[in-house]
Amino acid sequence: MEMFMEKIYNNTSEISIDELIKYKMQNPNQMITIQNTNKSHNKLESYSLDDMIKIKEKIAEIIRNIPKEINEPDKEKKIFTYIYTRLAHLIAYDEFAASAGRTGYERDMSEPYITKASNLVGGLLQGKSMCGGYSEILRNVLSEIGIECIYIHGEGKDKLGDHAWNQVKLDGKWYNVDLTNDRDNIINNSECQYFLKSDTDFKRYEQYNIKSEILHQCDESISNPNELMKAYKFVPPIVNSKSITEAYKRQNHTTSIIQNAKNLIAKLLNRTNSNREK
Predict the structure, then answer these.
(1) Under a CB-based contact definition with an 8 Å cutoff, are residues 151 and 41 in contact?
(2) Which of 189, 240, 267, 271 lies at a C-alpha separation of 20 to 30 Å from 171?
(3) C-alpha to C-alpha distance for 243 and 222, rounded to whole angstroms
(4) What is the model's pTM?
């Protein structure tokens, strides 16, 4: 029987896909644990080797699509804007999982489902996440390109329950960001209220009861958020209506072929049964 093993890392950038494949060949039951930077939250998430390989591949895909023309000045802010908005379009908010613990909305839900909605699996592999998942995904994606980002744990708006967000260091300065609360703003092309904010401006929008031990002082908000968003946000590709029409025609054609085949088989079976009765 293979021994269960576990390896602990601070973020996904500390392990390569090649290493993961090697570990899988040596011991497929080994687990990979990503330790959150927030010690007070004591957040440890373990992943199977298969899931971690898929996670690394998804992160690599996101990074690979960062526009090559991005350059100085404020290069990190521009890259961050792209990643922040890309994740908003990639990951839907998992309202079902989020409502599991709210008073009046308690749901009978398995612990693994809620766990996945709060870690890298839910958002990157299943396309749905809660605040913990958004924050952990943002932290790990940025770690892969050398941008420092920490996970912050506290209590959110109206004290409805625990909440998670991030602090990120860009071009030498720390800022507060909350992708969970900004997601709808990004999708709807509205002004982002939680994007690269100072401590003062961040608290203006939402009462944050911070429980994290690790915090950096954020002295100023970014001066040109609208310009950054306009120039460097991720823009979903426009789906060609002609392509949709052609795909629909092909689907109908395929369906027609299958239906004709079924009709032919039915006729042959009826003929066979009729001959037997004679």
Answers:
(1) yes
(2) 189
(3) 40
(4) 0.79
